[in-house]
Amino acid sequence: MKTCIAILTLLMLQQNCNQNPTWNLNYRAESRGFYKELVCDGTTLKHRSTRQGTFKTLNLKAEEQESLVMALKAIDLKNISEPDQSKSMVDAAALASFELLIEGVVYSYEFDHGHPPKELEELMTRLLTLSEKVE
Q: Is-above-0.85 flag for pTM?
């Protein structure tokens, strides 16, 4: 009986794991005098605010993980609008690079920090809000 329960539990866990895509996200914004780097794998968020600094890590709670997955699922990654980069060209905003590895495919975008393409706004807002907990 215990064996059956253990097998059923493992099958349910495997099924839940298969429903959420595996992903890694790297975000870096930098200009003269400003640096922010975020690395997220879905379960942890790492943040550093200097180029040579060490990463500070936040272990994400289940609801935070689910929030990020929901934001990811809402994005049509193949149809991201071209972002405005005019502010970073004249140092009015830091240039941000966003790279997402999801299911073996890399999606990368550059935009002004604080002004992502509208399709990425929700995800970026959630990530930046979570990164404030790390600081």
A: no
For residue 73, count CB atoms less than 10 angstroms from its CB and return exposed for 0-12, middle for 13-18, buried for 19 or more.
exposed
What are 48-86's pLDDT values in tens digits? 999 999 999 999 999 999 999 999 999 988 888 776 655
CATH number of the domain bearing residue 119: 3.30.1560.10
Residues 41 and 24: beta-carbon distance below 8 Å: yes
What's the domain count of the chain? Answer: 1
Q: How is residue 55 written in tokens?
A: 């990463």
Dihedral over Cα of 48, 65, 77, 102: its sign = positive
DSSP one-letter code for 79: G
- Positive/negative CA dihedral, 40, 45, 48, 53: negative
Q: What is the three-class DSSP state of 19?
A: helix
Distance (Å, whole) CA 96 – CA 29: 4
